[in-house]
Write a structure and sequence with these properties.
Layout lengths: L1 H17 L6 E5 L2 H11 L3 E5 L14 H8 L3 E4 L9 H8 L11 E3 L33 H18 L4 H25 L7 E4 L5 H7 L2 E5 L10 H14 L3 E4 L6 H10 L2 E4 L13 H17 L1
Parallel strand pairs: 1-2, 1-3, 3-4, 5-6, 5-7, 7-8
């Protein structure tokens, strides 16, 4: 009888360990923004690792042993897509040799398939056009409305991979959506004075931010995506700033600042450095805090 009780206890313990939904889903993302949303939806049921830090430009990454290890062990890969990671993700996947997260498998989630992409190429594309993305502009997370679409797609895929925790993912999704829907009108109200106004940016990456908050990007420091500005291009931008009375230049922190400083010296335009991703600045740990920081940076420039 005593032996039976011991065996029963061992079997019960084993069943708890082996029961579905108890082991955390190993998720790897290509950016910190996707990692933040996965964390919000997955909660304690997932373990998430971003392959790139929020302070870096996700176009450029270098495969490191640590990246290979987490990719090898992953149950789910969540990527921005639209060729944002074209220079480094495929070699990483080939090295990791994890069939669970290859294209076409449930563990491969390309978020660009779930959002409306801007700037799709309508004709032939060559390197002469700069660092263009024929499939569309990949910086879609900078429209918080797209954050809703991203979160819903992540929840559905997590439920597919880990059905035992489906109710948890649904509950976390509801909380995330409600909070984002509550905050979006607040952000819109905070930036209402920017609506319809002309703005200069550094790269094409702020198109979605402009679309979300209604300002117009009338020029960019880069003459073509990824191409450094020439003296003549900067002179042309000076004329644009003066001719259209542009008061604001928005740019991410990892771009060179000499060109922006020159434009400011020549025209008086206000240069505002805004975080582009979760983790780009200390204290930005969630998708909500990212837009809080963007709004605060722009508001601060208006009062300085």
């Amino acid at each position: 009888m005593k032996l039976f009780s011991i065996l029963k206890g061992v079997l019960l313990a084993f069943s708890v360990i082996a029961s579905p939904g108890l082991a955390a889903v190993q998720v790897v993302t290509t950016t910190s923004d996707l990692a933040a949303i996965v964390t919000a939806i997955g909660g304690d049921s997932v373990k998430v690792k971003s392959l790139t830090p929020g302070a870096s430009d996700p176009h450029f990454a270098e495969a490191k042993p640590s990246m290979i290890r987490v990719t090898t062990d992953a149950d789910l890969l969540v990527l921005v897509g639209a060729d944002l990671e074209i220079g480094w993700l495929q070699p990483l996947l080939q090295t990791a040799r994890n069939g669970k997260i290859l294209p076409g498998s449930p563990g491969y989630l390309d978020m660009s398939a779930f959002v409306p992409l801007l700037d799709r190429a309508s004709g032939p594309v060559s390197r002469a056009l700069g660092d263009v993305h024929p499939l569309g502009n990949p910086h879609y997370w900078l429209n918080p409305g797209n954050g809703l679409l991203i979160a819903r797609a992540i929840a559905e895929r997590l439920k597919q991979i880990d059905p035992g925790n489906a109710s948890r993912y649904d509950a976390n999704l509801t909380v995330f959506v409600q909070e984002l829907q509550r905050r979006i009108p607040q952000w819109e109200a905070a930036l209402a004075s920017l609506k319809g106004q002309p703005v200069i940016s550094y790269h094409t990456s702020l198109r979605y931010l402009a679309d979300a908050f209604g300002f117009q990007i009338v020029g960019q420091i880069e003459p073509k995506p990824g191409i450094p500005p020439s003296a003549s291009h900067l002179e042309n931008l000076i004329q644009v700033v003066r001719g259209q009375n542009v008061r604001l230049l928005l740019m991410e922190p990892f771009y060179e600042r000499r060109s922006a400083a020159y434009l400011s010296q020549q025209t008086g335009i206000q240069v505002v450095i805004i975080p582009q991703s979760v983790g780009a600045e200390r204290g930005i740990r969630s998708y909500f805090e990212l837009f809080d920081a963007i709004v605060q940076a722009i508001q601060k420039s208006a009062t300085s």
